[in-house]
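We modelled the chain as a single entity of 145 amino acids. Its sequence is:
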Amino acid sequence: MEEFRNKLQKDIRSYWILAGVSAVGIAAMLCYAIFSGDGGSGIDTTAIVFITLLICSLMFIRRNKMALNDENLFKSLYVRNTDERNNQIMMTASRTSFVLIVLGLALAAIVFNYIDITISRVLSCCMTFIIFVYLGVTAYYNKKM
């Protein structure tokens, strides 16, 4: 239990870093919009990503701090994170999701090959990147365990 408590405290620090980076990103987007004079075109999506990251980080910080202060919430969070059945379900769902995402990207790349070759190449690059990340993470955990 003490190890999980330390993990939550470490997670809180990580979320604060993510919140800080997100706040800096939002400020950079606003400064760019003000000083470039383009009225903020093209940065809306990036700003939304930073805002979403900031909100999620603050929500997780709040949840973890509440869990550290409330023993019942801490125990329920501990059980949810250490339960073998839940972990197995999450691994199976992750594997299935990964395969479906890669297949969807492959199918979209094939379809867009007939519509616009640039989009097809971008999708192919995204699919290749996802596969390389998967292989790298798999190799890392194979060495670690």
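As a brief sanity check on the tokenised model: The CA atoms of residues 6 and 59 lie 19 Å apart. The chain is about 90% helix and 0% strand.
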